[in-house]
Amino acid sequence: YTGGTMGESMELDKPLKEAGFAGEYEREDKVWIVYSHYPILSEFDFNVKRIVLGVRNPFDVMDSFFNLLMTKSQNKSLAEEEYVKYKDIFEQFVKDSVNEWKNFHEFWLS
């Protein structure tokens, strides 16, 4: 089964394990595929021999992560009027995130 690298302290991922993602928090040899945001979002070193790097549109990732932080949920999204309300916060979040995701891709592609 699949595993994840966020770690048990990531409260927002607990519903994933409860929903049937049995490998959530698992990183042992029995796990063949691990999703990761390493080195950006991880609480431990993530050592692997090989990777397959799946890349999403960075703006979709930033929007998704902003929703996660604002709603504290894996399956909720802000309403359009909330984007208007939090426009300045969202714009600053995107500016702050660009370098993190640039570094993420440079890390895995180097």
What does this protein look like?
Strand 1 (2-4), helix 1 (14-18) and strand 2 form a beta-alpha-beta unit. The chain is flat and about 45 Å long. The mean pLDDT is 79. Helices cover 44% and strands 5% of the residues. With 110 residues, it is mainly α.
State the main characteristics.
single chain; flat; two-stranded parallel ribbon; 4 helices; mainly alpha; 110 residues
Write a short abstract of this structure.
With 110 residues, this protein is mainly alpha-helical. The chain has helices spanning 14-18, 58-71, 80-85, 87-109; strands spanning 2-4, 33-35.
Layout of SSEs?
Blueprint: E1 2-4, H1 14-18, E2 33-35, H2 58-71, H3 80-85, H4 87-109
Parallel strand pairs: 1-2
Helix pairs in contact: 2-4
Structure classification: mainly alpha
Q: What kind of sheet is the major sheet?
A: 2 strands, parallel
Mean pLDDT over all positions: 79
Total of helices: 4
Give the ordered list of helices and strands. EHEHHH
Q: In what order do the strands lie side by side in the largest sheet?
A: 1-2
| Low-pLDDT regions | none
Helix amount, in percent? 40-55%
Q: State Rg.
A: 15 Å
Separation, N- and C-terminal Cα atoms: 28 Å
Shape: flat
